[in-house]
Every structure is written in C-alpha cells, then in structure tokens.
From TrEMBL:
SMART domains: IG, IGc2, LRR_TYP, LRRNT. Residues 425-510 form the Ig-like domain. Its main location: membrane. One of its GO terms (cellular component) is plasma membrane. It is a single-pass type I membrane protein. Residues 1-32 form the signal peptide. PROSITE patterns: IG_LIKE (PS50835), LRR (PS51450). Pfam families: I-set, LRR_8. Keywords: Cell membrane, Disulfide bond, Glycoprotein, Immunoglobulin domain, Leucine-rich repeat, Membrane, Repeat, Signal, Transmembrane, Transmembrane helix. This is Leucine rich repeat and Ig domain containing 2. InterPro entries: Ig-like_dom (IPR007110), Ig-like_dom_sf (IPR036179), Ig-like_fold (IPR013783), Ig_I-set (IPR013098), Ig_sub (IPR003599), Ig_sub2 (IPR003598), Leu-rich_rpt (IPR001611), Leu-rich_rpt_typical-subtyp (IPR003591). The lineage of its organism: Eukaryota, Metazoa, Chordata, Craniata, Vertebrata. It is found in: Cell membrane.
Amino acid sequence: MSLMRNEIWMFKAGVCSHLLLAVLAFLLPALASMALGCPSRCECLAQHRAVVCHRRRLRAIPDGIPIETQVLDLRKNQLSDLHPHTFATFSQLEELQLSENILGIIEPGSFHNLPALRILNLRNNRLKLLPVGVFTGLGNLTHLDISDNRLVILLDFTFKDLGNLRHLELGDNDLVYISNLAFVGLHSLEDLKLERCNLTVFPSEALNQLQKLTMLGLNYLNISDLKPFGFRGLQQLRILEIDNWPLLKLLHPLSFDHLNLTSLAITNTNITAVPGTTLQHLGHLRRLNLSFNAIELIETGAFEKLIWLQELTIAGAALKTIEPLAFRGLAHLRVLNLTRNLLRSLEEQAFQTTETLEILRIDSNPLTCDCRLLWVINKRRWLDFGGKDPTCQAPIYLHGLTFAQIPDVLPRNYFTCRQPRMLGPRLVTLMAIEEQMALLPCRVEGDPFPNIAWISPWKQRIVGKQGSGKMIILKNGTLQLHFAQLADSGVYTCIAANAVGNATSFVRLNVKRFAPQPLYINETHGHASGDVNYNIH
C-alpha cells in the first residue's frame, strides 16, 4: 500500500510540474519582453502590461515598446503628428493616452489594427480638423476625449466607425458648426459633453442622430434660443444639463417636448421666471435645478405638472417671493434647496404637503422669524438643514439666532404675527377726470406687512403690476390708474392679507368727462357711515 501511495504521489507531482512548466512557458516570454524590451525613457509595469512614457519630452513614438502592451501612456510630451499604422504592431492595446501633446495632424489610418482599444484620450492638443476616416479600425472604442483642442467644425461622418462608443467629450474647442450628419454611426453613445465652444445655434439635427444618448452636458455656450422640438430624437435622454448660457432669456413651451428626462439643470442663464409652461411636458422629472438665475418670484402652481419631482434646487438666485401653493402638485418633494436668496420667509401654505420633506436649505436668506416660519421651527428636530442652520435677521431681538438656538418652549413674543388692520374709513368716494391719473388709496398695517390686491368693479383681480396694462399697485398699496376712463367708474375693493388674516376697504370711483373749466378739490365728510368723499383732478 505504501509503495502504491508513493507512486500516486509521484504521478501527481509530475502532472503539477508539467502544468507549472506550461504556465511559465506562456508567461515568461511576455514578462521577459516587458522587462527586456522596455524603452529606455519609459517605465514598464509588467504586471499591468503598461508602458508609461509620461512627461519625457518625446517627439516620436519610442522604439522598443513590447507588442503585448495593453496600456500606453504618452501624456505631456511633444508629439506633433500621427501617421498611418503608427500603432499597428500593438494589436492588444486597450488604452492609449495622448493628451497634452502638440498634435496638430492625425492622418486617417493612424489607429489601424487596434481592435482591442477601449479608451483614447486626445485632450489638450492642437487639432483643428478631424478628417473622415481618422477613427477607422476603432470599432470597439468606448471612451473618446477630444476636448480642449482647436476644432472649428465637425464634418459629416466624422465618427462613423465608432459604433460602440459610449462616452464622448468635445468641450473646450473652437467649434462654430457641427454638420447635421457629424454624429452618424454613434449608435451606442450614452454620454456627451459639449461645452465651452463658439456655437451660436443649437445643433438639433446633429444631436437627434444620438438615439441612445442618456446624458447630455451643454455648458458655457453662446446660444440664445432653444427652438421647439429641438430634442425630438433623444427619447432615451434622462439627464440634461444647461449651464452658463448668458444669452438665454426665454424657453419656448415646446423646447423639451418628446423628452423623458429624470434630471434637468438650467443654471447661470438669463431667464427671470420659472419656465412653467416648458416644464409641464416633463412628467417623469425627479430632479430640477434652476440655480443662479435672476428668478424673483415663484408663482402659484409653477411646478404642478411635475408630480414625481423629488429634488428642487433654486440656489443663488434672486428669490424674494414664493406665492401660496407655489409647490402645488409636488406630493413627493423630499429635498428643497433655496439657499442664498432674498427670501424673508417660507410659508407652509406654499406646499401641497410638508410631510415628505426631508432636507430644507433656507440658510443665507434675510429671514424674518415670525409666525410664517413657525412650522419650520416645529419640524426642526427631524428636518435636515444640510448642515447649514438657518439664521434670523429680524425681528431685532432674534437677530443672529440660529434655529438651533431657538428654545423649545417659545416666549410669548417669539414667532408671532399681527393681523392686517385698515387705517381710516372703510369706504372712500373719489371723483376723477377722464384721461387723467387716478390714485385709489389703501392704508393698512400688519406684521408682516400685508400683501395688497385689488378687485375692480368688473371683478378683475389686480396683483402687483398685473392688470389691464393701465393699472398698477404702488408700494404703499395705492392703486394707480394711468388714464381714467368713464367705464372705470364703480366700487374697487382693496384686500390686505398676511399669514394670520385679511382686511378689506372700498373706494367708489366716479369718472367725469373732461370739462374746460377748472375743478377744485372739495372735501366733505359723510354721515354716520364714516364715508369720505373726494374730488380729485
């Protein structure tokens, strides 16, 4: 038995020795090649089959690079041109780094016989033109970076051979035109960055070739208009970023039609209002960023079609007013970021619900800590302020206190408000002359100072500078009619409202035809009703 066991052991040992020799026979030539064939000015990492010739002042591809090389790093050298078959002997190459050279010419065929290449980096060179066929042979390429070059135009079929490309970076070029068929052949492209170019017209025809695109970054562009249906071919697009378009002032209601976005950022543009009619087509949106735009007001129902929205950011804008039910329809809102604005308050009635709210950023606003913010104080134990505790600016006795410093049991004068109260008689009668200005007073007090609205005799509601064009509300609440007409006669209602109530007063306006003889002010007091009559001219 002992003899048999020894024979079995010797047999197994022999088999293992043969296997080991076979493995070594396979590996040693490759390792020896990497060790013995490494160019003198490069570093070879045999374990990773990588050759690193980074920052070696090379003016040509060095001799002696092992044919088994999978990663070739030639960054930060002085390579100026590439000719056909330059890399033809490196058929196993998977990653080629050529960024930060002085490449001005890449001839078609330069990347011939690189079937395994996945990553090609040509960033920060001097390329002005990519000739058709320059990428022939790179059918398995997945990542291409040609940003920070001097490209002026992208010709038709420039990328026709890159059927497996997933990520393309085109930013920081001098592009003035992208041909309509430039992106033909990019059947698999998922991520495109097109930024810091000289484009002045949105290249919708070219982009609509990219039917598999899911992420699109369009930043630092001098484009002033997004025309209707500009993204009609990008039905797979989920993430769109538009940043630093200083000429963009308005969005067409159909600019984003046909899109199924889940994330949208429109930041650092010249828009001055929430583009509600444009956003209403984006029913699948989860994240929206409108930061660093000069938006002063969020109107009632501005986002009501975005029923699945979870994150809303409007930071660093000029927000002063958020109307009641501004966030109507946002039943799933979890994150609201309104930091660095001009808000004095954020009322609970702006929301459809605050029960889903998890993160609220209202820091870096001149907050008046009165009853309008009491709901935030009551929820502060489970609301996340993003590490930035809000701070009271007013009233004076709370100035500088953070919400964390507010006591749990509030003193009687903390976070209080006073209901509006009209000053003077409830009914005033005024006489005005046709075609002249009429001023209808509304004197009121309250804390916070009430919002003023007027109701015309024909039931038109006038808020702020809205109305028929000839009526505006002045800062002191007075309704100004630029040119009174006979048809403007009637009773006007002033409504003053704040967070704790409202008050009303009335003005009866009589407009008289213009008479050549002068009219003089004649003030008479009414009877027990407290009415006041004025003639004005």
